[in-house]
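Service request form, structural biology core

Requester: graduate student, group of Dr. S.
Request type: structure prediction, single chain
Budget code: on file
Notes: please return the result as C-alpha cells.

Sequence provided:
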Amino acid sequence: MSTDEPSVPIVCTECETETSVPLSDVADALARHNDGKHDGEEIAEVDPALKDRLADLVAEDLGLFDEA
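Core staff response, request fulfilled:
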C-alpha cells in the first residue's frame, strides 16, 4: 500500500462503529463487515457526508450546477 493512498471513513450505524480504511480496501472492508455482521445487508457504508461531498464535486465537474 502506498503511503499516499487516502483513507476513507466507513460507518456502521447499527454497530455504532466508525473506521477508516485505504481507498483500495473500501469495497472489501464493507463487504466483509456486512457479510459477517449483517448477513450481507448493506448497513455499513462510506460516511454519508463524504458521499454527499463527492457527489457535489462530480456534479460540479460535469457542469450540472451551471445555470442554463
